Amino acid sequence: MQVSVETTSGLERKMTVAIPSDRIDSEVETRLKDTAKRVRIDGFRPGKVPMREVKRRYGLGVRQEVLSELMRSTYFEAVMQEKLNPAGAPSIEPVDLTEDSGFSYVATFEVYPEFEVKGMDAVEVTRPNVEISDEDVSEMIDILRKQQATWEEVEREAADGDRVTIDYVGTKDGVEFDGGKAENAPLTLGSNTFIPGFEDGLVGTKAGEEKVLDLTFPEDYGNKDLAGAAVQFAVTVKAVSEQKLPELNDEFYARFGVEGNDEESFRAEVKKNMERELDQAVKTKVKNQVMDGLIEQNDVDVPAALVSEEIDRMRQQAVQQFGGGQGFDPKSLPAEMFQDQAKKRVHVGLVVAEIIKANELSADEEKVDAMLNEMASVYQEPQQVIDWYKNNPEQLNQLKAVVLEEQVVEKVLESAKVEEKEMSYQDAVKPEGQA
């Protein structure tokens, strides 16, 4: 078998493989002899069909089958022989199909980039330093109470924080527009659910009151027909309701499965959950800064095939996240929606893989067990969760991958420039860009 490799551009390689005719003929002959033993042809006894008749009837099909299998097997042989590391599946095109000269094909594919990770000491990280105060716990309890709140109709003017039930009709230049009409719609004033000015315009209204709001849609509104447009909303207030928060009592504590019926036990449990959330949020913020820093310091060619595969994964995730049915084809989502994020993910993956390889890292079993125990602790039957993971290799491997990624972050932090920053609990747990 002869192999030649040509670098066409960047990471792309064009590999030509020539399979000698004797290797092909030998495999075809073996297949035809096996076929002769099994085939049944009228006029011949089983196993006694002349080889020339078997070849006449089945020779072309057997040869095509052999060539197809040889393309697959010799591709991997050639890749190993040339010490190549393909990224993604190859595109294979036959070159010569004549029996006398053997068989040749060209495999075009990308390879993984070869590089050494640099600049870990130039990565800059700001680590949040947070102390959860009693006030933070009280605010969280207020949030939990609001989540369990009920609404009670009142005979007074609507105030910020109240919920109004309304009918409304939106018009532009006197004509109703799509999506601008509803009946018995609940709206919490101050929630910023509607366009600017809508909720403010209903503060001070009473049940039974009608009001016309002259508003303007934001310039960046998603519907281009309405973006920046002046409109009117004719609103009828059907009811005004105020929020009734539940009392801090045994019934309220029981809703959250807290052991013990006193406020002290409940506050302790809430703080424990806040600490868990805070720990995860800090890890995420630090990890994101580390990964962004590594990308900035390591300009790496990213294989387009891997980006394409990542786009397909992100399409599938998007469909699942938004409840897409089986009849929805994820590939109908434009690739451009995911292009930049997919490229970044692949870039990060390449750099992380190189750090793992260079430092011979593997998932620390003690850290895997610690993470599994922490995850299981929030369930009523922790041991069942632990056993489920340990009996599902695929899920356990995903957990190990998370731990290994954390170990990579720890390795980078050994060299990185890390600055501690005092931060409130609220800012620390907010997603990136919102703090």
TrEMBL record:
Span of the signal peptide: none
Entry annotated with the keyword Flavoprotein: no
GO cellular component: cytoplasm
GO molecular function, one term: protein folding chaperone
The entry's keywords: Cell cycle, Cell division, Chaperone, Cytoplasm, Isomerase, Rotamase
Main location as per UniProt: cytoplasm
PPIase FKBP-type domain ranges (all copies): 161-249
Record text about domains: Consists of 3 domains; the N-terminus binds the ribosome, the middle domain has PPIase activity, while the C-terminus has intrinsic chaperone activity on its own.
Identification of the protein by name: Trigger factor
Organism of this sequence: Litoribrevibacter albus
Lineage, top ranks: Bacteria, Pseudomonadati, Pseudomonadota, Gammaproteobacteria, Oceanospirillales
